[in-house]
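Collaborator request, handled under Task 6.
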Amino acid sequence: MATKINLGKLSDKELKALKQRIESELKTSRTRAIAAAAQELQVAVQRIAKKHGLTVSEVLGRKRKQRTSPVPAKYRNPDDPGQTWSGRGRQPAWFREAIGKGKSAETLEI
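Structure tokens returned to the collaborator:
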């Protein structure tokens, strides 16, 4: 049985530490529950597929992912030519700084 804690006697620092431990344990518990549900689902899909003489991939209609080549760089950091960016995803800090200093994206193009 869990020990009772008198929360009123704990300092702010102790309460915050306890809160972090609780949040961490909740995340761990949720992760375990998701893993258990996924395992249970996998077993059920395998059983159903086998019952009908099919494979799991036939039942789920999964296709193999095609490998894609990396996107070539579109922008280069003028201060450090080793730093490049393809123009996709989050803008790197050096790109944002250059734009903030008044440079245009066109001047940073390779």
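The cover message to the collaborator said: "The chain has two domains: 11-60, 75-108. Residues 11-60 form one domain. Please let us know whether this matches your experimental observations."
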